[in-house]
Amino acid sequence: MSRTEILTGNQAAAEGAKLCHIQVVSAYPITPQTSLTEYLSQAIESGEIKAEYVRVESEHSALSVCIAASSVGARAFTSTSSHGLLYMHEQLHWAAGSRLPIVMCCVNRGVGAPWSIFNDQQDSISQRDTGWIQIYCRDNQEIIDTLIQAYRIAEIVKIPVMVCYDGFVLSHTMMPVEIPDAETVDAFLPPYHAHTILSPEDPRNINPVTFPWRRADQDGVMCDGYMELRYKLQSALEAAGETIAAVGRDFAERFGRDHGGLLWRYRTEDADVILTGMGSIATEATMAVDALREQGIAAGVVGLRVYRPFPKAAVREAFRDAHAILVMEKDISYGYEGALCSDLKAAFYGTEISAPIHNVVAGLGGRDVKARELAEVTREILDRIAAGQPEGPTTWLNCRTDTPTE
Amino acid sequence: MPENLFKVNKEEYMLPGNRACQGCGLSLGYRYILKALRENTILTIPASCLTVLHGLYPTTSVALPCLNCTFASTAASASGLVAGLNALNRGDITVVAVAGDGGTYDIGIQALSGAAERGTDFIFVCYDNEGYMNTGTQRSSATPMGALTTTTPIHTKQQNKKDMLKIMEAHDLPYIATVSPAYPMDLYDKFVKAKRIKGTRYLQMSAPCPPGWGFPPKDMVKLSRLAIETGMFVLYEVENGRFSFTGRSKTLAEKGKRLPVINYLERQGRFRKMSLEQLSQIQRWVDGKWNEYVRRAE
User: Fold this and answer.
1) What pLDDT, on a 0 to 100 scale, did the predictor assign at position B2?
2) What span, in angstroms and rounded, lies between the C-alpha atoms of B186 and B166?
3) What is the mean pLDDT of chain A?
4) Residue B74: closest CA among chain A residues belongs to which residue?
5) Among A339, B97, B224, B242, which residue's Cβ finds the most Cβ atoms within 10 Å?
6) What DSSP assignment string belongs to B251-290?
7) Which CATH superfamily is domain A3-188 in?
8) Alpha-helix residue ranges (DSSP H) falling in A72-197
9) Mean pLDDT of all residues in B148-167
């Protein structure tokens, strides 16, 4: 039987990891991820779950441990935030390039300098191009459910999955969470079988130097060059969207909760203006939409769950009838605009979608984002559009922008 | 032929033909390392000359399973192998990490110290060719004073070699040993012993590099021996803190006479710009280390 408990996001993640029969955990403490590693240490030391916990001296080593453990066929888990994720950067590429189904929680936090321990999504967004699947959760129920889905997805498509959720906003906020029963999870998530198990019975040299061109093996069979291997990762990621959606549907059937697969919608049926974002800012936008509708503005929300692979077809469908689009995000691609905004615009290129798209950068380094503020900025932008200003500069929500630039 | 040659494992795990340079000290030593380790072994190696020796995808010159890892992560990769194998009840497999001096003394030291402090059950092998030889002879913290490298191209290296073995000793490991490709039986015995011990074992192999050090490939064994005759490299082991000389170094300590370091240095092009002051500094440094070893062996 499933049971409902009041859990923080980090507790929900730990409960999810435990249900997935993780075999090797390796992590290094960093705020706001820390308590997740503590819960798992407790679970392992107390014998509640049987797993190896490697208490490494850095995040770089944490992911290195997961890569090696996964290579011999163990289900591996890690988690981090912010600078810890950036310190893993090299290993993120290595894990994806090795096609290992590692699952990691990224408890989103801003990036220094200067130091910030508070939430935004600059950390995971800046790891966008490492070849990982990225899924953003909007509440603690979605964290536990997504973690269980993540191993299933990762092990089917042979690509590591980053389960992202907002630091403090979710990681340290308590909500009722239904913890699925172990039998249902076991039926949903079969044991891990690695695509290539490194073992003395079948000696191989895994990830050696690979040349630009294809080369023949000892039997004369032509094997991939570096570029074919990159193409395979890319095409697997492109195809992974369908797997993510299918796993989401199967999960919904078995557990009765559907988080939307690639994206979710809120009051979009007749919406003129669509607010969009990832994680808790999208949840906040749903409350802004309720307020806007009370004021007679037909607004809705499209929340993106999956950022990589980018759900191009799904967003084209979801935004088809919008007359205005507001992209709200807790990250910035310095020198341009929010990364999600650019990606959405690219997805709409060449389609009939010609609605004005406005970018709202919000909540950097933990600055509070209120539904009221999202509603206000929506009204302001709609006024600008009505006044014939379809493309405005990126709005920095609730931020003084009249100070000198140095 | 010495009697103990007959006990050496007849299997070859390094196949004929590999991409190492002619006269490579690593290549000769590695052959005997693998013979001592035998089949039930998983290797992990970072970017290094050894990556080149292992070969290009999809062929390899080494018949033991190997996981290539990033430069800084060797000991963490080994930790992951150990954890994964334990989780799968395959803890009987010996996990062996093999890195160069760059991957040990420099970029790999954090992960190595972490794994050693945790008492991870694995063997770490540093093959020390005293510089970044795979990228073309750049200075590392293992490069000896007075050596020309491509990043100390005019003034030579100004600092002494880091004492990595002492750093590893500070981790209170059950087994630490030095080995030389010029003495394969001493090397073989130490690896056989290391394989039987639990916990973190650290072995460091001197790996003379003909192109990087500037000596003819045919002289590799001769030069390896001279390193030991002069005390530039010392064969020893430290078992649970107990120091003992082994092999030729033991003979030297008991009744031999160490040769002056100049006999070793003068045969290598990399020392051609070394100053007399540096020469005497190296001699003093070697004498100091040697005297410390002798005291500890008593």
Assistant:
1) 54
2) 21
3) 97
4) A64
5) B97
6) HHHHT--PPPTHHHHTT-GGGTT--HHHHHHHHHHHHHHH
7) Thiamin diphosphate (ThDP)-binding fold, Pyr/PP domains (3.40.50.970)
8) 82-87, 89-97, 122-125, 140-157, 182-188
9) 97
Query: Is B222 within 8 Å of B28 (Cβ atoms)?
Result: no
Which chain B residues are closer than 8 Å to A68 by Cβ?
Answer: 44, 67, 69, 76-81, 83-84
What is the side-by-side strand order in the sheet with B175-179? Answer: A205-206, B66-68, B41-45, B94-100, B122-128, B200-206, B175-179, B236-239, B242-245
**Residue that has been written with the tokens 């690639």 in this structure:** A262
Encoded tokens for A291: 């307020």
Strand (E) or helix (H) holding A61: helix A59-71
Q: How many CA atoms, within 13 angstroms, populate the side-chain half-sphere of residue B125?
A: 29
Q: How far is CA B86 from the centre of its chain?
A: 27
The pLDDT tens digits of the residues spanning B118-138 come to 999 999 999 999 999 999 999
Query: Are A199 and B41 in contact (CB < 8 Å)?
Result: no
The distance of A70 to chain B (nearest Cα, Å) reads 7
Q: Is B37 on the interface with A (CB under 8 A)?
A: no
- Give CA–CA dist B229/B256, Å, rounded: 9
CB contact under 8 Å between B111 and A58, yes or no, is yes
Tell me which long-range contacts B166-172 makes (C-beta under 8 A, separation of at least 24): B167/B109, B167/B113, B168/B112, B168/B116, B168/B202, B169/B238, B169/B241, B171/B113, B171/B116, B171/B117, B171/B200, B172/B241
Give per-10-residue mean pLDDT for chain A (406 aa): 96 98 98 98 98 98 98 97 98 98 98 98 98 97 98 98 98 98 97 91 95 94 97 98 98 97 97 97 97 98 98 97 97 97 98 96 97 97 89 90 80
What is the domain class of A263-396 according to CATH?
alpha beta
Cα end-to-end span (Å), chain A: 59
Closest CA to A276 of A318, A234, A310, A311: A318
Share of chain A above pLDDT 70, in %: 100
Q: B103 pLDDT exceeds 90?
A: yes
Domain locations in chain A as residue ranges: 3-188, 263-396
At A207-254, the pLDDT tens digits run: 999 999 999 998 999 999 999 999 999 999 999 999 999 999 999 999
Q: Quick check: B229 and B264 in contact, CB under 8 A? A: yes
- Cβ contacts of residue A322 below 8 Å, gap of 6+? A271, A272, A273, A274, A353, A355
In tens, the pLDDT along A375-384 reads 999 999 999 9
What is the interface pTM, i.e. ipTM, of the complex?
A: 0.97
Chain A hits for B53, Cβ within 8 Å: none
pLDDT for B6-63, tens place per residue? Answer: 789 999 999 988 999 999 999 999 999 999 999 999 999 999 999 999 999 999 999 9
Preceding omega of A32 cis (within 30 degrees of 0): yes
Q: Please report the domains of chain B, with CATH numbers, ordered by start residue.
A: 3-297 (3.40.50.970)
- For A:7-66, CB contacts with B below 8 A are 23-24, 26, 50-52, 54-58, 60-62, 64-66
